[in-house]
Design brief:
By secondary structure, the protein is of the alpha/beta class. The protein has helices at 11-20, 52-60, 74-79, 81-102, 133-148, 170-180, 197-209, 226-237, 267-273, 280-292, 295-300; strands spanning 2-6, 25-30, 41-44, 64-67, 105-111, 153-157, 159-160, 184-187, 191-192, 195-196, 214-218, 224-225, 244-247. The strands form four sheets. It has a seven-stranded parallel sheet with strand order 3-2-1-4-5-6-11, sandwiched between helices. A two-stranded parallel ribbon has the order 7-10.
């Protein structure tokens, strides 16, 4: 299959592109961050520029498109609401319309943050209630995609992994500070279900191969607090878990509001795929194994200075 991946320099995009390239022909779209790799074809453009979406589709002629590009920084969304809406709502709408016209299958990546997190355990049938601009624009993007292309997949995710900069995921935040011996906070009252980006990539490929459509929660089957996540990383890598101070998110002084209980049910995904994504211990073991294999250094070597 020919796969076009947007946001290919991001945490999910680069890992997805590398994983998919083992068995498929992959084209990765980047904006300002160019990449040096033979694993997939890099297409550099600003997707918000007139004609850019048609250009990348013409170049790649994809069977599948996986749309990872977004403005995902919560504070950046609050400070740049127009840009957030362009990237998180309008661009997905345009891409879905173009994919439907060309007969390409689209998987649009959304977020668990569309829920307010007051209770957790959310299914695809539950009504979202976003608490910040990032989540609102992502929810609007979900609706825009499915309105424009009802055959598309919308996947709500939460993920971790190794990134190009080494500073894009919560797992890297904990790892970097633990390695340096720095003290840090870990939120005891924020729960989530993060899936390793490399594992998420395989789930996405399976979803497309099975020709699924519609809305899915695609997260880890096991959920935990961000504090417990940090402690698990400390123990996996042999660092001191006491460097992580158990803290309430209310005391952290963060700008944008966070949803506290982002635990999602994945029964629909398990049923339709007839498979269950790896649990948190399995994901963390692979995260550790990738480190031992020099994967973070491999990613950094792809960056063009």
């Amino acid at each position: 299959m020919r796969i076009l991946i947007t946001g290919a320099s991001g945490l999910l995009g680069v890992n997805l592109a590398l994983e998919a390239a083992h068995h498929h022909t992959v084209f990765g779209v980047v904006n300002t961050c160019n990449l040096n790799t033979t694993a997939f074809t890099v297409l550099q453009t600003d997707l918000l520029e007139p004609g850019a979406v048609d250009w990348v589709l013409d170049q790649a002629q994809p069977d599948w498109v996986i749309h990872c590009a977004a403005l995902a920084n919560l504070e950046a969304c609050e400070q740049n609401p127009d840009l957030a809406r362009e990237l998180n709502t309008e661009l997905p709408r345009v891409l879905a319309s173009r994919c439907r016209k060309r007969g390409a299958r689209l998987l649009h990546v959304s977020t668990d943050a569309v829920f307010d997190g007051h209770r957790g355990g959310y299914t695809e049938e539950d009504t979202p209630n976003p608490v910040n601009l990032y989540a609102r624009t992502k929810l609007e993007g979900e609706k825009a995609v499915l309105d424009s292309d009802p055959s598309a997949i919308v996947a709500r995710v939460n993920l971790f992994g190794w990134s190009l900069s080494g500073e894009r995921s919560l797992a890297e935040f904990f790892f970097n500070n633990l390695q340096a011996g720095n003290r840090m906070m870990g939120f005891t009252d924020v729960k989530f279900c993060p899936l390793l980006a490399n594992d998420l990539a395989q789930v996405f490929i399976d979803m497309l191969q099975k020709e699924l459509r519609g809305l899915y929660h695609v997260v880890n089957p096991s959920c935990l607090s961000k504090y417990d996540f940090g402690v698990a990383i400390a123990r996996k890598f042999g660092y001191d878990p006491d460097l992580i101070a158990p803290t309430s998110v209310r005391d952290a002084g963060l700008g944008a509001t966070r949803s506290p209980q982002l635990t999602l049910k994945i029964d629909k995904l398990i049923h339709d795929l007839n498979a269950t994504p790896p649990d948190i211990s399995t994901s963390l073991q692979r995260f550790y194994t990738l480190y031992q294999q020099g994967y973070p250094q491999k990613l950094r070597s792809m960056l063009v200075e």
